């Protein structure tokens, strides 16, 4: 059967013209409307395969119409038509949920091509919507320990309350990203975007532009306007990871946004509003940061509407074998290897280890083990020296503190190698696998050259 297309325009002549153009090739069935509200009624009763709608209409304009359509149907293609054809019109239409944008006078062949392209894409969009709107599966959070049961209950409770802010606390590697996604999936906003921002990855000025967007000319390199991630996440969830690193000047702007859910792009005077949930996460003691004056107290209380501390692995030792088996299964699928079984003795040793890197460290150990593993079982010797009994730092091992940059690690390793070899540069170069010239360049870069060099 040919696809049905709704044509909506307050000008009856324009409706008749587009209808005639689309039906000429007998590829489409059309229904014309001069009132958007009538089209919405028909949409509820008998949804079309695609919609072509005018942007400027007296009672319900095209932007508002698209928003209403998306409340009823998330996937039907909607093509907006306008005589003005400005970049701002196109951006507003697409932000509202339109699929495409055409200018008047409408070129028949071009419109047909756009409709066909949208119809080809529609099944993929529907599949994506079905996937993203799936209900949260509590079993995605692994573990039977009471602390993990609390985490699952927290996800379900917070997800059921629209737009409530949440704060996730805990050590690095405890799964804060997974829990944030779980809250999103458990909510009514599951069909919208989940947008993650690492606050530690960008300086304050760039982070502000990334979050709130900017207008053309707002600063030297702003050659065109750009939507911020707050706009991108409209309707869904904004996940602010490493919130404890956010600069004080940006904390004030974030607080203002959380209070009103409104903002202005950099270089703009126009206030915009969004509807979204904010989930923040940190591995630092925010209450302590507040006491030290490095984190705003009012922002802390605004974020801390609902909070949950995620337990480290050492606090849920009984769940470690199950979590490890999950990572083994994932790694086997990824590396296209037969699924091995962790030896019982290996599971016991995994439980005895402290896991300072938590689940992230466990996953890395399992993946590394799978790369080198041969045979049907994953032996304890495959599970890294970190979990082997009787292994400790000795004369041949270099212990480095956490928090070093890559340059600092390289500098210390070169220094330790030279010390071990009594300053023999040629032997150090050979042991490090580089030429003497390259080693000299690295030592110069790190300030390790002696006066006579």
From TrEMBL:
<keyword id="KW-0238">DNA-binding</keyword>
<dbReference type="Pfam" id="PF00072">
    <property type="entry name" value="Response_reg"/>
</dbReference>
<keyword id="KW-0547">Nucleotide-binding</keyword>
<feature type="domain" description="Response regulatory">
    <location>
        <begin position="4"/>
        <end position="119"/>
    </location>
</feature>
<dbReference type="InterPro" id="IPR058031">
    <property type="entry name" value="AAA_lid_NorR"/>
</dbReference>
<dbReference type="GO" id="GO:0000160">
    <property type="term" value="P:phosphorelay signal transduction system"/>
</dbReference>
<dbReference type="Pfam" id="PF00158">
    <property type="entry name" value="Sigma54_activat"/>
</dbReference>
<dbReference type="GO" id="GO:0005524">
    <property type="term" value="F:ATP binding"/>
</dbReference>
<dbReference type="Pfam" id="PF25601">
    <property type="entry name" value="AAA_lid_14"/>
</dbReference>
<feature type="modified residue" description="4-aspartylphosphate">
    <location>
        <position position="54"/>
    </location>
</feature>
<dbReference type="InterPro" id="IPR001789">
    <property type="entry name" value="Sig_transdc_resp-reg_receiver"/>
</dbReference>
<dbReference type="InterPro" id="IPR003593">
    <property type="entry name" value="AAA+_ATPase"/>
</dbReference>
<keyword id="KW-0067">ATP-binding</keyword>
<dbReference type="InterPro" id="IPR002078">
    <property type="entry name" value="Sigma_54_int"/>
</dbReference>
<dbReference type="GO" id="GO:0006355">
    <property type="term" value="P:regulation of DNA-templated transcription"/>
</dbReference>
<keyword id="KW-0597">Phosphoprotein</keyword>
<dbReference type="InterPro" id="IPR009057">
    <property type="entry name" value="Homeodomain-like_sf"/>
</dbReference>
<keyword id="KW-0805">Transcription regulation</keyword>
<dbReference type="InterPro" id="IPR011006">
    <property type="entry name" value="CheY-like_superfamily"/>
</dbReference>
<dbReference type="Pfam" id="PF02954">
    <property type="entry name" value="HTH_8"/>
</dbReference>
<dbReference type="GO" id="GO:0043565">
    <property type="term" value="F:sequence-specific DNA binding"/>
</dbReference>
<dbReference type="InterPro" id="IPR002197">
    <property type="entry name" value="HTH_Fis"/>
</dbReference>
<dbReference type="InterPro" id="IPR027417">
    <property type="entry name" value="P-loop_NTPase"/>
</dbReference>
<feature type="domain" description="Sigma-54 factor interaction">
    <location>
        <begin position="141"/>
        <end position="371"/>
    </location>
</feature>
<protein>
    <submittedName>
        <fullName>DNA-binding NtrC family response regulator</fullName>
    </submittedName>
</protein>
<dbReference type="InterPro" id="IPR025943">
    <property type="entry name" value="Sigma_54_int_dom_ATP-bd_2"/>
</dbReference>
<keyword id="KW-0804">Transcription</keyword>
């Amino acid at each position: 059967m040919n696809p049905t297309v709704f044509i909506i325009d307050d000008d009856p002549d324009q409706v008749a013209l587009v209808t005639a153009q689309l039906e000429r090739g007998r590829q489409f069935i059309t229904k014309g409307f001069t009132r958007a509200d009538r089209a919405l009624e028909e949409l509820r009763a008998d949804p079309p395969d695609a919609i072509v709608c005018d942007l400027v209409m007296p009672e319900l304009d095209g932007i508002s119409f698209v928003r209403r359509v998306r409340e009823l149907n998330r996937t039907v293609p909607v093509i907006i038509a306008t005589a003005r054809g400005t970049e701002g019109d196109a951006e507003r239409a697409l932000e509202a949920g339109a699929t495409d944008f055409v200018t008047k006078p409408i070129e028949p062949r071009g419109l047909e091509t756009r409709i066909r392209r949208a119809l080809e894409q529609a099944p993929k969009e529907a599949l994506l919507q079905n996937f993203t709107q799936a209900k949260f599966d509590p079993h995605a959070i692994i573990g039977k320990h009471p602390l993990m049961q609390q985490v699952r209950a927290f996800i379900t409770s917070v997800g059921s309350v629209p737009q409530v802010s949440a704060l996730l606390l805990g050590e690095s590697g405890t799964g804060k990203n997974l829990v944030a996604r779980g809250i999103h999936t458990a909510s009514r906003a599951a069909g919208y975007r989940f947008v993650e921002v690492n606050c530690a990855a960008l300086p304050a000025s760039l982070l502000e532009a990334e979050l709130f967007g900017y207008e053309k000319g707002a600063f030297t390199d702003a050659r065109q306007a750009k939507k911020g991630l707050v706009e991108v996440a409209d309707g869904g969830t904004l996940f602010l990871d490493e919130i404890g690193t956010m600069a004080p000047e940006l904390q004030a702007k974030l607080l203002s946004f959380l209070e009103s859910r409104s903002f202005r792009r950099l270089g703009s005077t126009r206030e915009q509003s969004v509807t979204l949930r904010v989930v923040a996460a940190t591995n630092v003691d925010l209450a302590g940061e507040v006491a030290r004056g490095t984190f705003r107290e009012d922002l802390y209380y605004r974020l801390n509407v609902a909070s949950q501390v995620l337990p480290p692995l050492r606090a849920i030792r009984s769940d470690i074998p199950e979590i490890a088996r999950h990572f083994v299964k994932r790694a086997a699928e990824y590396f296209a290897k037969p699924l091995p079984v962790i030896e019982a003795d290996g599971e016991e040793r995994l439980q005895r280890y402290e896991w300072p890197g938590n689940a992230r460290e466990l996953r890395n150990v399992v993946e590394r083990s799978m790369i080198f593993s041969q045979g049907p079982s994953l032996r304890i010797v495959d599970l890294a020296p970190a979990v082997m009994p009787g292994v400790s730092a000795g004369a041949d091992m270099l212990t480095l503190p956490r928090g070093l940059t890559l340059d600092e690690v390289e500098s210390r390793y070169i220094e330790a190698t030279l010390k071990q070899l009594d300053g023999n540069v040629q032997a150090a170069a050979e042991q490090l696998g580089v030429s003497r010239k390259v080693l000299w360049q690295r030592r110069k870069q790190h300030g390790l050259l002696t006066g006579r060099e």
